[in-house]
């Protein structure tokens, strides 16, 4: 006997730009949206019955259509509007809306010209169910480096260990972080994103790192302590190794000046820090 | 109060090639390996104590070192050897080994020359714990197309629905599938992979698709029914839309001959089919 | 004083699939096309006069429209039809059509189901001018490896040389090659592509490589000698280094068995071989 | 008879980071370097004689080694030092050094913490020959958008033209530009790069675009006119189309507010603007 297990379907990579042309200058919003539905869809799999299958093309059209009225604030709010819309169909138990937002900043004082700011991508995942909304916010593609105050020593050595201990290494990573909010918090998502990102960067810059693990804890704890609305944060940090170039063999001193930067292989550390 | 939640760390993107030079010709194995450990690592986060932190550099060295003795059969077996190795450290509760294998096929009759066969990537995830091994096998990057016997009709229409019903569309997708085995099954992983892939391709080719959802069910059910060792399979299928080019406006008939192929946006359907 | 120098414009990344549904089975053609025009377009730059600027959107429409009648043979022939079409506008001096063709192979005996064969991409660049057509054909994304009969020794050593000489290295590369035809040759482009690719693979497999440079010469010379229609061939070969893993430090012998495969940095060798 | 035509070889994707730790804060340089040599290398192809073949591994070592002494100013100066180094070998007629530089900006006031600034990539190509140096500078990966003052109308209409004329479209592009200097100019490459980039952005923001072609001319002419050291500039601008979403069919007004952003297909316009 064969049965259907968990399943979801939807539309991904919906690319949407909104431009608002105010008197004081234009505003650009640049999103990639994905919609996924779960619910009473077993018959579409088992019986090939499409009568309850909202077409993914319709999801795409709906995303553009609702952007006119609902993409006026945070991506979390837009995700909520989209999620609630798809819940109106009774066969839908859960509508998950995933949004990436890309930044553009004005060029000089021009009201209508922009440069893509790739410092990071803002992310949100909003799941709408009959019980309400679940919201996860995040940041991705944030590449940062510490050129001092980063060490890695005291680790165990076995027959395959060759890494030297170091009290002063270069630490580089591409941060992905997602966070959830305290139940019932009345969150200003835009303000919260700005503040959490500020803390993340500040603490990254200020702290002394004895390992990527310790850095995650120190940054995560600061975010929990400084931002009362955050219930937990999960950080995923690759360790993008920079090796000191071996120039001594050429008679050239290299006191942590010239590095070989690499991407393969890389460390990968992921942890969640929570409000207890 | 702040606490540490779930966490894991390890090394990713370890690129390894093994060549065995037999009398009858060489054999090439080409893998990308990732190692992730979970266990008693709280002190590394909270106290910055690295005394139990196996360096990810050591994980990389270990992968190459164990390949000499243990990469002689399936990637599942190599993953098991690696997983068990890392479990020997008492602070490790779970060692997860993820392996992608890339194919090379001989050029003609040459014993030592190969062409990279990108028809698909074989995958495995092996998790070793004190309770034993959990093994998941899979296939990825398998791009297939049906040029007839694919339809999509009978779906609901609302105010944002514009998609026309069709009884004859082009269906293209990039298959990702992972499967788990029946408890206690004595699995020949290489033979099982070949057989499951054969079924997947055969049923994809033979069946009439009324939706991607129905295709997943038909293919998944066939795999469960034909392969007694498979307990469940999860398939993730993007719908890579091909739209009939609108040539009628130029007076050129286009009866499903000339298509615009697209990647953004795309449908995305994921479901698990299980042995009951 | 400021003047306009060389310029060209057009449409790129036009994705086109054609399906022909014959009695004996379907045939799939999968192309990416780019069009670029040169000619009397100075006024569009200097005076902002668009009266001679064929819209790139029109180029896209034309590509789909002409595919119905003209994509019945080689991509070189389709490129020629497209190029000639754009030449009909008197302001166009040169129309360059660049086409990549991706392969699909039938799944088993199914007439209408296909698997994307990524062994290589076939390429063509056709330039149409008042003087006629210039055709360049090629192959790309062909990844090959030699596991023996590859050496690199006898190279000069200076103060920065650390590479050991080797008589038996692993050689891996991703071949890009383009070739031009003898003037006036009556070329069957499909047959020529198949034959040239066969020679390229055969000689790659059979020859002893003392360097990538020597390999290019040996392969290129064979292509010139065996294929009377080829006037010259240019090959671009990255040297995708595979380093023997240093396992001896762990007491594990590694006689060219376990390799670290890398992509950064890589050698890059490019040369043209010509019929004299 | 077969002969060897043009050829070059070298090392690509050499990834190098330099950190200088001054009292007032650290400075990070992040480069990708490629070296290519041309000269008397025919025997390496035709006779398999490696005695004049500087190993590409040596080129890599040399790049790191020379960075200690010579990467103290512009990438153009570092490229010149590298190029001149390889010319010392008499078989080398031309050494071409290609450098991409990636930006990092300090996080707040921290002296040793940086965020990768992906606003653009700075580029340089320096070719050293017996006759001296040839220098080309550039910028790449600069993504910009105009939300008004961009039109495209007055273009010719033929049987395949369907594009509507527009006086107000969204214009988005990813700028690649390279420029050459007036012979004998005494160039401060860093200052020139900053100034040229400023002009490029300012004029992009200020001008009214009637086509991408006209934009290239207006921007290029301004660069030539305002920067006496620049002899010519070549710009390559994809037209990353943003289509107004068709919401009217849903009864939703959409006066240039909601756009579908696309990457395939795209226009591509390339032109050189020169000092006469």
Explain how this protein is built.
The structure is a homotetramer of 276-residue chains. Chain A contains five helices and ten strands. Helices cover 24% and strands 44% of the residues of chain A. In chain A, a hairpin with a 6-residue loop joins strand 3 and strand 4 (113-129). Chain A is globular, with a radius of gyration of 23 Å. Chain A has an eight-stranded antiparallel beta sheet. Chains C and D meet through strand 1, helix 1, helix 2, helix 5 and strand 7 of C and strand 1, helix 1, helix 2, helix 5 and strand 7 of D.
List keywords for this structure.
alpha+beta; 5 helices; homotetramer
Strand tally of chain A is: 10
Low-confidence stretches of chain A: none
| Number of alpha- plus pi-helical segments of chain A | 5
Major sheet attributes of chain A: 8 strands, antiparallel
Shape designation of chain A: globular
Give the N-to-C terminal Cα separation of chain A: 45 Å
């Amino acid at each position: 006997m064969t049965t259907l297990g968990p399943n979801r379907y939807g539309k991904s990579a919906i690319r949407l730009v909104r431009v608002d042309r105010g008197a004081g200058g234009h505003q650009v919003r640049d999103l990639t949206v994905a919609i996924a539905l779960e619910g009473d869809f077993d018959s579409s799999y088992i019986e090939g019955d499409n009568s309850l299958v909202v077409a993914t093309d319709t999801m795409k059209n709906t995303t553009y259509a609702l952007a006119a009225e609902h993409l006026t604030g945070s991506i979390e709010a837009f995700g909520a509007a989209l999620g609630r819309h798809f819940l109106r169909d009774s066969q839908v138990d859960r509508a998950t809306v995933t949004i990436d937002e890309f930044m553009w900043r004005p060029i000089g004082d021009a009201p209508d010209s922009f440069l893509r700011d790739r410092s990071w991508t803002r992310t949100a995942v909003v799941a709408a169910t009959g019980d309400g909304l679940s919201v996860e916010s995040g940041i991705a593609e944030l590449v940062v480096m510490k050129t001092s105050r980063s060490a890695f020593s005291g680790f165990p050595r076995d027959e395959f260990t060759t890494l030297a201990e170091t009290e002063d290494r270069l630490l580089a990573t591409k941060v992905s972080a997602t966070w959830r909010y305290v139940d019932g918090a009345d969150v200003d998502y835009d303000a919260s994103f700005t503040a959490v990102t500020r803390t993340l960067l500040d603490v990254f810059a200020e702290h002394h790192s004895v390992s990527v693990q310790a850095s995650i804890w120190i940054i995560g704890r600061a975010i929990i302590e400084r931002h009362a609305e955050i219930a937990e944060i999960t950080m995923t940090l690759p360790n993008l190794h920079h090796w000191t170039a071996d120039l001594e063999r050429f008679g050239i001193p290299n006191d942590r000046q010239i590095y070989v930067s690499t991407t393969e292989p890389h460390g990968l550390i992921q942890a969640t820090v929570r409000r207890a």
